[in-house]
Amino acid sequence: GISTAAAAAPEQATPYLRPLLQFAAAHVPALKHKETPLYILCTAGMRLLPERQQAAILEDLVRNVPLEFDFLFSKSHAEVISGKQEGVYAWIGINFVLGRFDHEDEEDAVVTVALGDQRESLVRKRTVGILDMGGASLQIAYEVPDSGAFSSPQQEAAAKSLLAEFNLGCDVQHAGHMYRVYVNTFLGFGGNFARQRYEDLVLNQTSVHNRLHSQRIGLSPETPFLDPCLPVGLEDTVARGGQSLYVRGRGDWLACREQLQPLLAGSNSSQASLVGAYKAPIDFSNSEFYGFSEFFYCMEDVLRLGGRYSAPTFTSAAQEYCSQRWEVLTQRFRGGLYSAHADQHRLKYQCFKSAWMYQVLHQGFGFPLEYPSLRTAQLVYDREVQWTLGAILYKTRFLPLRDLRQESVRQAHASWLRLSFVYNHYLFFACILVVALAIVLYLLRLRRIHRRQLRAAQLTLWLDKVVVPPGQGNGP
């Protein structure tokens, strides 16, 4: 990413982005460049850099990008966004694609929302929450319809840092599209990082056990540590700081699940605790969630259960997989029985990751075992939904949410509108002709009246000349 390319040399930031910007410039009409906003939003990699390096990279972009491209770009358009912002943008993107901001559709599930100082609650379409587990981190985001009460000032302070309230409507004065969203990111709780933490835990526990009981478990291939989180018979070696631990899988999914329980609390004081962190209340009887990344891979790549999540079905399939011998699993893999995305790494750690996903979902976030409204997915409507979609929607406020109903009405009457548009100029000319004809008729009428008055005046004058007044015709 840009943090790697320009960390030591900030002047490399613009050259690094140049191919991407050239691609955009080629696809946006040249006449539209100056009115097309450009946003450069940096995420996790840049957040890890010192603020001085971040500022130098952003300064290079703000100074040099306008010299080469005519996009609408200013200093405020280049920034390093927080994990909270990234989560909000991802939440906006998925709900926009699913059409959850169109409040006029009465067929979908609804939720009652109380926001700010409003005296009356809003009833509108229910949004979906998102769960996303990567290799290093875990993230959750969902709408909080009611602010509720806090048990302590500390909890209230934690809530304020994790709740984002924003308006997606075109009119900031209208609260119909105000949303309150809980967003939290847990570093170290991703699938791969959790495995490393688990191996560290096993290494330490085994070392202590050997010292207390004068045993040599895991110190040689002949006396391996029997790992419940690896398939039966799989042999591996864990190396940490000059220490090596020999392990052999025993494929006990239930035991693996119990082994992972301590990891939910975090491994050290600087790492967040999943079970102890503040989590806004979830109405599990009226909510819906989508699980991405590891949630989908755990269910689909090997178990072929991607889609709607069922805890009993998932548990049964995970137990069956873990109990198989490693030779059987690799034979199935070579036979093409698993997803095309599955590889040796997935086969090796599927048992562990499925148990970790289960613990995170039900013990960490408290989802009921019978929860029916979690769907795991990689694509939504055959497209991959990225946080960048939500970012551009939020940044440009390009969401005419309250006009969706009017737009549908206009589309329903599109044929009538086109017909009236085609013929309205004929109507205009007809009106002009009618008015002109009325004026002509009026002028003709005035002309006839004028002629009558003229003839009457001439007749009166003639009579005055011909008729002799009485007394003037006789002499004296």
Question: Overview of this structure, please?
Answer:
The chain is an alpha/beta fold and 476 residues long. Among the domains are: 2-80, ATPase, nucleotide binding domain (Nucleotidyltransferase, domain 5), CATH 3.30.420; 83-187 and 262-319 and 370-399, 2-Layer Sandwich (Nucleotidyltransferase, domain 5). It has helices spanning 2-6, 13-27, 44-47, 51-68, 83-97, 153-162, 191-213, 253-259, 294-300, 311-322, 326-334, 344-364, 387-396, 404-412, 414-466, and strands at residues 40-42, 78-80, 110-113, 122-125, 129-133, 137-143, 163-167, 178-187, 225-227, 235-240, 243-249, 289-293, 374-376. The chain has a six-stranded mixed beta sheet with strand order 7-8-6-5-12-13. It has a three-stranded mixed beta sheet with strand order 9-11-10, covered by helices on one side. Helix 5 (83-97) packs across helix 13 and helix 9 (294-300) crosses helix 12. The radius of gyration is 38 Å and the shape is elongated. 26% of the residues are buried. Keywords: ATP-binding, Hydrolase, Membrane, Nucleotide-binding, Transmembrane, Transmembrane helix. This is ENTP7 diphosphohydrolase. Belongs to the GDA1/CD39 NTPase family.
Keywords, please?
476 residues; alpha/beta; Nucleotidyltransferase, domain 5; 6-stranded mixed β-sheet; 3-stranded mixed β-sheet; 15 helices; elongated; UDP phosphatase activity; transmembrane helix
